[in-house]
């Protein structure tokens, strides 16, 4: 039984690592387009089907940021073969705590 538990943990770790590699590859693919416009997108974390990213530079205040996030989410769903929810995160300069920034698309996905 202990062997099964260790094997399942190793399998879960490999799967998680594979998912992260796919997510990073997708972000690397779109990064040149974002940088051309003065922005970027960083992977903050993955929690199940939730993928937290941080838009930086010009992307942070861009009116089309929700469209960019929607495109990234669609590409992730295509590559991962499963539904994922892309969540934009910003850091509070005073507290350093993460703040979720809801876009119209994120609100639609959460059912609100």
Overview of this structure, please?
- With 112 residues, the protein is an alpha+beta fold.
- It is 51% helix and 24% strand.
- It is built from three helices and four strands, in the order H-E-E-H-E-E-H.
- The chain has helices at residues 2-36, 65-80, 104-109; strands at 39-47, 50-57, 85-91, 98-100.
- It has a four-stranded mixed beta sheet.
- Helix 1 (2-36) packs antiparallel against helix 2 (65-80).
- The protein is elongated, with a radius of gyration of 16 Å.
- 14% of the residues are buried.
Provide key terms for this protein:
disordered C terminus; 4 strands; four-stranded mixed β-sheet; 112 residues; elongated; single chain
């Amino acid at each position: 039984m202990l062997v099964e538990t260790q094997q399942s943990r190793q399998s879960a770790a490999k799967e998680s690592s594979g998912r992260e590699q796919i997510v990073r590859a997708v972000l690397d693919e779109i990064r040149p387009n974002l940088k051309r416009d003065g922005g970027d997108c960083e992977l903050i974390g993955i929690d199940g089907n939730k993928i937290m990213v941080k838009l930086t530079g010009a992307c942070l205040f861009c009116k089309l940021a929700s469209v960019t996030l929607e495109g990234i989410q669609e590409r992730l769903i295509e590559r991962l073969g499963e539904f994922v929810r892309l969540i934009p995160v910003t850091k509070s300069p005073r507290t350093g705590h993460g703040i979720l920034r809801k876009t119209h698309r994120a609100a639609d996905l959460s059912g609100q």
